[in-house]
From TrEMBL:
Protein name: Solute-binding protein family 3/N-terminal domain-containing protein
Cited PANTHER family: ABC TRANSPORTER SUBSTRATE-BINDING PROTEIN, MEMBRANE-BOUND LYTIC MUREIN TRANSGLYCOSYLASE F
The keyword Signal is assigned to this record: yes
Keywords, alphabetical: Signal
Signal peptide positions on this chain: 1-28
Keyword Lipoprotein assigned: no
Family, as annotated: Belongs to the bacterial solute-binding protein 3 family.
Pfam families assigned: SBP_bac_3
Top-level taxon of the source organism: Bacteria
């Protein structure tokens, strides 16, 4: 009974957290977005921790508030997010141009100033790291990926889709795949949580997280960029990143 009460308490806190950023504030614009992605995308989004919901979950409302833009959260699975952006059901998401072929976000979108750096690696078990020191070594091989995620070179390898970064690390341990693609922070976090040693091999992509905003809202970019600049200048972005990553080492 105590456990259920605690779970209910956390749900209420998360509901209040979401409510305060989704209710109208008489701003001229409102943008719809989805923050879920993978529920194991630690430390960017953490679905079951109301008090520490993740770096991106914390930063988006701060950026929108400073830019005087209302945000409405729509909950969609990762595989539907890209289609929802294409059709206009969603107005923006947070991505890295490094995930896209030739870093091209496509004709429907514009991008904001960089929010924070993000690096993805080929991740494998320690005994296999020498097999993936060079990024070209993934070509033609089956590589673990997250369903619905974008990979700039997925024509070069065979995708083995799993539901989350957590499941990718489990798949390595069970030898279902020999290597996976993951950000360093998610891979190291789940390695620690699951007590499954992993090694970071070749860098797969290296870039910055940005707003991928539908072009019809391009007039909002100056306000969004100014909000990002303010949060960088006052140290808020660095503080949030440090809070979530200081216990993780590469």
């Amino acid at each position: 009974m105590v456990k259920r009460c605690l779970q209910y308490k956390h749900l209420v806190r998360f509901a209040l957290f979401a409510l305060c950023f989704t209710q109208p504030h008489a701003y001229a614009e409102q943008l719809k977005y989805n923050i879920t992605g993978s529920y194991s995308w630690y430390p960017y989004f953490i679905g079951d921790q109301a008090e520490a919901p993740g770096m991106i979950t914390e930063l988006i409302p701060l950026i929108l508030s400073l830019a005087k833009i209302d945000g409405e959260i729509l909950t969609l699975p990762p595989k539907r997010t890209n289609n929802a952006l294409e059709t206009g059901q969603l107005d923006f998401d947070i991505v890295s141009p490094s995930w896209f072929e030739k870093q091209d976000l496509g004709p429907l979108f514009v991008k904001s100033a960089p929010i924070m750096q993000i690096t993805e690696y080929v991740v494998t078990l320690p005994e296999n790291v020498s097999k993936y020191k060079d990024i070209d070594q993934i070509k033609g091989k089956q590589i673990g990926t997250v369903r619905g995620y974008l990979y700039h070179d997925d024509k070069d390898f065979i995708r083995a889709d799993f539901t989350s970064e957590q499941e990718l690390v489990k798949a390595l341990d069970k030898h279902r795949v020999d290597a996976i693609i993951s950000g360093n922070y998610p891979a190291l976090y789940w390695s620690t949580q699951l007590r499954i040693p992993v090694a970071l091999a070749a860098v797969h992509s290296d870039g910055d997280l940005v707003f991928r905003l539908r072009k019809e809202h391009a007039d909002l970019l100056p306000a969004i960029n100014q909000a990002i600049a303010t949060l960088k200048a006052n140290g808020k972005i660095d503080a949030i990143v440090k809070n979530y990553t200081q216990t993780l080492t590469s």
